[in-house]
Amino acid sequence: MISFLKAFPRHVKTAFLSIFRHLAMSLSAASAVTITLVLLAVFLVLAGNISLFTSSIEEDLSIHAVLSTDIKEEADIQFIEKEIQSIDGVKQVRYSTPEEELELYIEEQGEEFAMFRGEENPLTGAFFITVKKADQIASITKQVQQVAGIRQAVYGGTSVSDMINMLNTVRFGGMIFIVLLALLALFLISNSIKMTIYARNREISIMRNVGATNGYIKVPFMLEGMIIGFIGSLIPCLITYFGYRYLFDVMGGQIFSNMFSLQPVMPFTLEICAILIVAGMLVGLFGSFFSTTKYLHWKR
């Protein structure tokens, strides 16, 4: 370990010198990382905002359970509330009085229904029920409908569930695509480093002849790969920050309505840039490691 630490500054110097000596190949490898990370950044932006959209929909999504006309006693209302609360998957139950129901109806349908305020109110009380997981809302609605004293239980309908399922599918597909992009970047930089190694086989042979171990030979290449990965991540970071900030300003921070708010520029872009830099350096590290290991695999 001590000998490694002593030699580490020399390895870093060797890595930087190698990048400048083989600038064309280094830029080729960095370009491969840049292109891949730009695509990765796009999907990270999409995935982050889809997660926010889905969360917003799930928070606003609720079941509206209307009480039967004969349910008026406080004890009966509390009993039904406990029955609903005991259903697996229910997050919260909130009682809405007949007066509150009428005010909501007037707000939605117009002031012409204000005449029903007071004793003329024909509406009954109801419950607003939020669920823990949006994909359970249909089954929970059916269970609420079967509770004694509930006249009707409705929610946003299949269109809302379908939209949530679609967003989750896109998010899952994006994750798979991100993994494929990482593998592609690993392959591209591995090939680029491999070409660099082949171009420097004479140098490697000399190092072997003077007794250098495989580990000693690998370290500069691995550092070189990390540096190339870091350089390749800088342009995607700049594109992510300035591009997303421009999009956020143009869209006014939302798409269509407040329900579809965009992720704030900061710290969202900062988090993505951190991921891109780490991903670029890891891809460079492992790409170099696999290439050098394969090339140096031999028996003394």
TrEMBL record:
Q: Does the keyword Metal-binding apply?
A: no
- Ranges for domain FtsX extracellular come to 63-151
**Does the record bear Transmembrane helix in its keywords?**
yes
Q: Which UniProt keywords apply?
A: Cell cycle, Cell division, Cell membrane, Membrane, Transmembrane, Transmembrane helix
Classification via InterPro entries: ABC3_permease_C (IPR003838), FtsX (IPR004513), FtsX_ECD (IPR040690), FtsX_firmicutes-type (IPR058204)
Its BP terms in the Gene Ontology are: cell division
The membrane-topology field of this record reads: Multi-pass membrane protein
The listed locations are: Cell membrane
Q: What functional role does this protein have? A: Part of the ABC transporter FtsEX involved in asymmetric cellular division facilitating the initiation of sporulation.
The name under which this protein is listed is: Cell division protein FtsX
Organism from which the protein derives = Amedibacillus dolichus DSM 3991
UniProt lineage:
Bacteria, Bacillati, Bacillota, Erysipelotrichia, Erysipelotrichales
